[in-house]
Amino acid sequence: MSGAATVWHLGVKELRSLLHDRVLFALVLYSFTVGIYAAAEHIPETLHRAPIAIVDEDRSQLSERIAGALYPPYFVAPLDITQSEMDARLDEGDVTFALVLPVDLQRDVLRGHRPAVQLNVDATRISQAFTGSGYVQQIVSAEVAEFVKRYREVPELPVELTTRIRYNPLLTFSWFGAVMEIVNNVTMLSIILTGAALIREREHGTVEHLLVMPVTPLQIMLSKVWAMGFIVLLACGLSIGIVVRMLLEMPIEGSIALFLVGAGLHLFATTSMGIFLATVARSMPQFGLLVILVILPLEMLSGGQTPRENMPEAIQALMSLAPTTHFVSLAQSILFRGAGFGVVWPQFLALIGIGGVLFALALSRFRSTVGAVG
């Protein structure tokens, strides 16, 4: 049997093993269907339906205007509560903001005084508290100013700023969330599946069976790389076509085929990383802990959640050696901006180089591990 045929049949064996592993197979299905849809539809916006309550001690026209200006989608309909209820509402987490409009608010405003309006914020909800307090302050100030002037003023600026939003004109958050979730799941599952495949053979004792067969460590490793990479790549392509384009109705600007080629190069690197981690770990629980330590920085520092320019230069230099950094870059360029190969070829080249180094390291470690077993 030729070397290519050996790698093919060993890879088919890996695919059959995965199909019989219901837990891992269900993980793949969930990650590229429900996981993508949930991450896209429930990604938090800047401020969305924040719960707010108002202690209206003035009961004036101005206080009613302020209460009426706090409406969805930024806030839910304000609750009308008393001063005695405010602390309990905040302690129980029913509301994030409690706005106190004092007695004689309207009278003091019309007399030219500067009455104090108290805003109580539940800072444990940091995503809403930080942004929402600024929204409330801006809304209250605008309503008071318009009430005093008795008309709604549209300021005329000396320079007119014309904004044109490209690639996502409606600023739909779900578009970004879906693509980034696919990128993260490709990385996560490729590492988990290849590592689990190697550890499963070690725990079942089939590594010893392979040692007495006319196969080499290179052929064993190549079979796991192509089999697990094929499963993840297939699931990725179906997810883009069915979940992203059909269910989420997200337009894809660039070539899906070009993106899948880049994903294949990325899988070459991450599957090699999974085998390397599996040779380091002695059991499946140890492998799981190693995956957590590796996955978190790869996903958080690759530029998918926060732009790399916002990170320290040392982190940027270090993460330039990670395959996820270049995969995130090419995914955003192709799927969002419609870039062609002439734009993303540096990322392709980087993935080939990083993948080759990781594959060589994993193969060296795997050979030493097989030699120790033998």
Give the overall average pLDDT: 87
The stretches of 5 or more residues where confidence is low (pLDDT under 50) are none
Helix content: 55-70%
Oligomeric state as shown: single chain
Supply the helix-strand structural class.
mainly alpha
Widest sheet, order of strands: 2-1-3-4
What is the H/E order? HHHEHEHEHEHHHHHHHHH
Number of separate domains: 2
Instruction: Based on Cα principal axes, name the global outline.
Output: elongated
Describe this structure in words.
The protein is mainly alpha-helical. The protein has two domains: 3-43 and 168-373, no CATH class; 52-149, abc type-2 transporter like domain (abc type-2 transporter like fold, 3-Layer(aba) Sandwich), CATH 3.40.1710. It has 15 helices and four strands. It has helices spanning 3-20, 22-31, 34-41, 61-68, 83-92, 105-110, 126-149, 173-204, 206-211, 217-247, 256-280, 284-300, 313-319, 323-336, 341-373, and strands at residues 52-56, 79-80, 97-101, 118-121. It has a four-stranded mixed β-sheet with strand order 2-1-3-4, sandwiched between helices. Helix 4 links the parallel strand 1 and strand 2 (79-80). Helix 2 (22-31) runs antiparallel to helix 8 and helix 11 (256-280) packs across helix 12. The two termini are 23 Å apart. The model has no long low-confidence stretch (mean pLDDT 87).
